[in-house]
Amino acid sequence: MIASLPMYDRAETAGANDRLWAAIRDRLRARGIEAPAALIHGAPDLWPHWTAPDLVLSQTCGYPFRSRLHGQVTLVGTPDYGVEGCDPGFYRSVFVVRTDDPRSTLAGFEGARLAWNDDLSQSGWAGPQTYLANLGIHLTPALRTGGHKLSAIAVSEGRADIAALDAVTWRLIQRFDGFAPSLRVIAATDPSPGLPFISRKGMDADALLDAIADAIAGMQDEDRQVTGLRGIVRIPADRYLAVPTPPPPAL
To answer: 37 Cβ partners below 8 Å, 6+ apart?
Structure first.
């Protein structure tokens, strides 16, 4: 059986995620639902988790959900990270640039070098591209990094001019990474549904959601502060499917 909470998992949050999973696991087992003892951390490829026939719980991004996973997995619910300017369960991207870059508006970065984490990222690619298109602004895809933190580092080191980061990831970077003061936010996208919890097809979504909600409600204050978790909400699948999907980057 597989359980993972990979989307905001890093050394500083791993302990809180482990304790959260232990609480979810015990509540599932109390309901007669089999659950693995521990989370899987640090898997280089998440697709085998998301599509595994023995998946109990994982977290994915809205873009992979609407493009490939919808109909193949059970949508459980969406965690609420209390993102500023967003309804519960929603989030947004922030555009970060170097602190010493003299350009003061997003429009000033017309044609600038963009670092992005992945072609199937809602917060790193799809959401920002839709937002930019509505403003008539074009950025030049210059560097695919493989991760939001790596995109932020690329901008801080001058290998790219701008990157769009998941707002929750940016919050973690500001808290834990020494390079954060070299970056500043210049704009933010419109909100979209956050990163949903999923399970294998046919799982009892209500039982899973109840177990997660109870576990989050019982979190220690320190773990709640580290993760930013406030609760879990139900966002219908059609809200995810309605989010625009721009074409992949043309390098």
So the answer is: 25
